[in-house]
Specification:
The complex is a heterodimer of chains A (209) and B (103).
Chain A lengths: L13 H39 L10 H4 L2 H27 L4 H31 L8 H34 L3 H33 L1
Chain B lengths: L1 H33 L4 H22 L10 H31 L2
Helix pairs in contact in B: 1-2
The chains are: A mainly alpha (209), B mainly alpha (103).
Chain lengths: 209, 103
């Protein structure tokens, strides 16, 4: 082994793992502050939607006529499973950092699920707009698109971030910085899943009752 | 040995999270699609199950609990929950009242 090859810092014993966790704690807490402020944006978009959904359809189509239960259920399952696969990636970061290929595999599966979700959502929007249910049709639809596409933009950002992390894993390996960024991305990804659960319940299921 | 136990415990947690999340998604979906309940009862169940599912996600995927290492995050989440309750609740209160008054 020459000294020029980069070595991957491997947590050797549980104490070391716990030390690492303590070091990263303040930074992760900072990321939590961002996530919670993001949650406030979504909360207000939900509030706008809730005030618009029943009385602001302007004679146009309602949620019951528009929403497709099967498509939104499949989207929900895609995101749920992607949350799980990211969890598996996090476990690999934590406990098997030497097996980089498995980590890349789980991240790749997560990325594919995220992209599949985005493709389905865009297809949904396309079908809605083809039925004349575009954002300018009524206040209800404006609020609907504002809420759902804000989430979609977040997922897009998450996918781009995931791609960048795959590049960083290739370039830097799994060093301390990359590990911290992956932890933040994991929080972001699970957080988006939580938001989607609320969208599925409050927008889609509620609209179809 | 400790690391292996920790690994297994976390793996169990993620698996339980996935399983519970799928069940908690399936139940309200079935209720809306095939359930014979009244609209308001269905709505209550859907909202309650959404809240439970969010709690499951926080515990299983985001590892938020009462243990010391996640106490700061828990405080932050509870604070945000209060703010959300005030803002969303206030908005709904004002707008629903206004709609009723305006017929």
């Amino acid at each position: 082994m020459s000294s020029s090859t980069p070595t991957i810092p491997v947590p050797m014993n549980p104490d070391h793992v716990i030390d690492k966790q303590r070091e990263e704690q303040p930074r992760l807490l900072g990321f939590w502050v961002f996530l919670m402020s993001d949650a406030l944006i979504f909360a207000l978009l939900f509030a706008v939607y809730a005030t618009m959904m029943t009385h602001a359809t302007d004679g146009g189509p309602t949620g019951k006529q528009l929403f497709d239960l099967k498509a939104s259920l499949i989207e929900t399952l895609l995101l749920l499973v992607s949350s799980f696969t990211f969890g598996m990636a996090s476990l690999n970061v934590m406990y098997r950092p030497q097996r980089l290929r498995m980590l890349v595999g789980w991240l790749g599966v997560t990325l594919a699920l995220g992209l599949a979700f985005l493709a389905m959502e865009l297809n949904d929007f396309r079908l809605l707009i083809a039925q004349g249910a575009s954002a300018q049709r009524s206040g209800f639809l404006s609020a609907f698109y504002a809420l759902v596409s804000t989430h979609g933009l977040h997922v897009t950002a998450g996918c781009v971030w995931l791609l960048l992390m795959l590049v960083q894993l290739k370039v830097f390996g799994l060093d301390a910085r990359v590990r911290l960024r992956l932890k933040c991305l994991a929080l972001f990804w699970h957080f988006l899943d939580v938001i989607w659960v609320a969208i599925y319940g409050i927008v889609y299921l509620q609209g179809l009752i | 040995m400790d690391r292996l136990a920790g690994y297994r415990q976390e793996l169990r947690r993620y698996r339980a999270g996935l399983l519970l999340a799928i069940i908690l998604t399936a139940v309200p979906t079935v209720m809306v699609r095939w359930g014979g309940f009244s609209a308001s009862a269905t709505l209550m169940w859907v909202l309650a199950l959404v809240l439970i599912q969010i709690a499951v996600h926080l515990y299983c995927f985001l590892h938020i609990g009462t243990q010391r290492s996640s106490r700061d995050e828990l405080g932050l989440i509870l604070f945000t929950a209060v703010i959300v309750l005030l803002m969303v609740g206030g908005t709904l209160l004002v707008f629903i009242d206004q709609m009723q008054r305006m017929g």
